[in-house]
Amino acid sequence: MLFVIWLLRRYNSVAQKMILSLTVAAFFDSVAYVMGDTHLEGSLCDFQAWWLTYFWSALAWVCLITLNLYLNLVCEISTNRFELYHLTAWGVPLAMASLPLLKGFYGPAGAWWITGDHVAWRLWG
């Protein structure tokens, strides 16, 4: 997908930029899964947990693309505020991933990667 967007770079629409951002987020999200679960404790474990949480930004991009389609097609509102989309799609997951990291709540907890002492944070991150 990235190659196609690069190849057809003369089309510089908001929709194409949003799909490019979604592709980048999905790529980096998949990198965390390729890392595997061999890092049981330590900084690499915490980094992988942060990485997995942060790149839920792919989900944020899907939601924003849907919102953009709704605003354009149903409400007939032209959306040219691409900077606001970037701030939302990258900023909200950054806060969601960084707060548990700064508080030291990440750790060897299996699929949830937030330790059992801080179960409420699983809903946040």
From TrEMBL:
<keyword id="KW-0812">Transmembrane</keyword>
<feature type="transmembrane region" description="Helical">
    <location>
        <begin position="52"/>
        <end position="72"/>
    </location>
</feature>
<dbReference type="GO" id="GO:0004930">
    <property type="term" value="F:G protein-coupled receptor activity"/>
</dbReference>
<dbReference type="GO" id="GO:0007189">
    <property type="term" value="P:adenylate cyclase-activating G protein-coupled receptor signaling pathway"/>
</dbReference>
<protein>
    <submittedName>
        <fullName>Uncharacterized protein</fullName>
    </submittedName>
</protein>
<feature type="transmembrane region" description="Helical">
    <location>
        <begin position="84"/>
        <end position="102"/>
    </location>
</feature>
<keyword id="KW-0472">Membrane</keyword>
<dbReference type="GO" id="GO:0005886">
    <property type="term" value="C:plasma membrane"/>
</dbReference>
<keyword id="KW-1133">Transmembrane helix</keyword>
